[in-house]
What we know:
By secondary structure, this protein is α/β, with parallel strands linked by helices. The protein is 34% helix and 28% strand.
Amino acid sequence: xxxxxxxxxxxxxxxxxxxxxxxxxxxxxxxxxxxxxxxxxxxxxxxxxxxxxxxxxxxxxxxxxxxxxxxxxxxxxxxxxxxxxxxxxxxxxxxxxxxxxxxxxxxxxxxxxxxxxxxxxxxxxxxxxxxxxxxxxxxxxxxxxxxxxxxxxxxxxxxxxxxxxxxxxxxxxxxxxxxxxxxxxxxxxxxxxxxxxxxxxxxxxxxxxxxxxxxxxxxxxxxxxxxxxxxxxxxxxxxxxxxxxxxxxxxxxxxxxxxxxxxxxxxxxxxxxxxxxxxxxxxxxxxxxxxxxxxxxxxxxxxxxxxxxxxxxx
Length: 314
């Protein structure tokens, strides 16, 4: 069931258009990846959804509430985990979570229970009296999450929650996000670590220059934008070998989109529907070349991201 709907969203800053007729939807109980290079409009979009900034035109609904007409209702059901740590360094972990949870109206026993559960959820129960200024980067990130989820929000927006953390903390954070989904929360997740997105996101929208340029599951995006995988066959090619003739033969074989040779490596772009990979090394052996190694590489989400948005760092 659709939980968040963004329709033709536009956000202008004077003459600059940060978000340009952006549309997407997020289903209830899914982890939704919102990806894009720096300056693509991700942060602006998340700020709009979380009610931190107004928008020029369009329509946004969260759990049936119109973002303009029912702003206070939307605020109550959203949790935000920002990229920049939103912590008070001289308050303890417990006091930080308590402060942010109280902003959503939690008081007394409910507040006490919510704080304890949030700290336990992120693995910081034993550090409740510790102040962030004495914590490691990974612990601060986990505390940041606790502050954003203590009020049990239905929609959680996570902006680069694993930046600068160690591998152990990253795994803990990713595991906790999956648990939030299992508990019924809906999560919008953004990261520049494509392996994280591949691991936890149910669906993905890639945006650039404020526009949506691709949407779907990881496999849907790959199948839409690539119908091939790479087969690399290492051999030994003598200087007098008829390379052009071999390439012509390989290119004419079934399911081969493209063939090329890089020194002693024959590289074939083969349709993903191909089922008889043995055909190609067998043909190469018949031409008198030894097979010294075979590797297969499928297109992944990072390949798709770079192909759509370009390699230049912005």
